[in-house]
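Deliverable D5.2: sample structural annotation.
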Amino acid sequence: MPKMTLSHFEASLLFSLFTSIVLGIVSKRTDRERLNYGLYVFGCFLVALFGIGWLMHFGHG
């Protein structure tokens, strides 16, 4: 089996993607609501990822 090496950013994006898909599927009733909610959650994950990343960057000087 080939070895997969991901950076922290790539791993975070994959986690955000898969978590958004699961949350969209299990929390809404119609396909349109699922898609909209999944995209919303993915966007929130990205904002949090970049926001916390910048806070850590400035916190470490």
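Annotation notes: Residues 31-60 form the longest helix (30 residues). The chain has a mean pLDDT of 94.
The annotation will be released with the project's public dataset once the embargo ends.
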